[in-house]
From TrEMBL:
It comes from Trifolium pratense (Red clover). This is Structural maintenance of chromosomes protein 1A-like. Residues 10-21 have a biased composition (Polar residues). It is found in: Chromosome; Nucleus. One of its GO terms (molecular function) is DNA binding.
Length: 237
């Protein structure tokens, strides 16, 4: 019986050129005759990962994109969390960390996210209050948006568990990163900004909004109606 062909020897494998890029622990190689290499699968555990790329760049492993995303988000999460928690009473802000549970085998383990509110000692995320978890979640959401922007957000009463100070902080952050706010401050995300539709019952959110939309019930016709108010025409100078 003829044994199935298994390209396992070094002579049968396509040759690889020298390493062209170093991205953290990820080494990117250019591989000649990539189509004959497509049946191979690189597995771990390794201290370093190798992404296989054909001469024209086709076939790049998706994990390089995932690692790039993680490196960007983990590098900016603390900055975003500080912006959300900075206040006159806590000028030093809080701290947030996003890290791999196992750097040698990142795809076989999870990702840990820890946030330390201003003026508090380190605690596990499960021990934070509802409001503290909300601020941490918003910091992660906005940091992901900074890496890969979305056209708009819809936030449904995310401020329900926040106290007045944190509501004001979140409202101020959203205002500064909105399209209008970013145009006024070109240093904020390159002046691009984002759009948010936020459902809220907090006055601090209303005050920082660009427009208000109210919904009420028309009892005579048995339907809901809306009222809109453009606040940009009445903005304080």
């Amino acid at each position: 019986m003829t044994e199935p062909h298994c390209p396992s020897t070094a002579a049968e494998q396509p040759s690889a050129t020298t390493t062209t890029h170093d991205q953290g622990k990820i080494h990117r190689l250019e591989v000649d005759n990539f189509k004959s290499y497509k049946g191979f699968q690189v597995i771990g555990p390794f201290s370093d990962f190798t992404a296989i790329v054909g001469p024209n760049g086709a076939g790049k492993s998706n994990f390089m994109d995932a690692i790039n995303a993680f490196n960007n988000i983990s590098g900016n999460i603390d900055k975003t969390y500080k912006e959300l928690t900075k206040s006159n009473t806590h000028p030093l802000c809080g701290q947030a960390y996003l890290y791999l549970e196992n750097e040698d085998d990142p795809f076989l383990h999870g990702i840990r996210y820890n946030a330390m509110p201003p003026g508090q000692r380190y605690r596990d995320m499960e021990l934070l209050s509802g409001g503290e978890k909300t601020v941490a979640a918003l910091a992660l959401l906005f940091t992901i948006h900074r890496y890969k922007p979305s056209p708009f957000f819809i936030l449904d009463e995310v401020d329900a568990a926040l106290d007045n100070l944190n509501v004001a902080n979140v409202a101020g952050f959203i205002r500064s990163k909105s399209c209008e706010g970013a145009r006024a401050n070109q240093d904020a995300d390159g002046g691009s900004g984002f759009q948010i539709i936020q459902i809220s019952q907090k006055d601090s959110i209303y005050y920082k909004a660009e427009a208000l939309v109210g919904v009420y019930r028309d009892s005579e016709r048995g339907c809901s109606r809306t009222l809109s108010f453009d606040l940009t025409k009445h903005r304080e100078s």
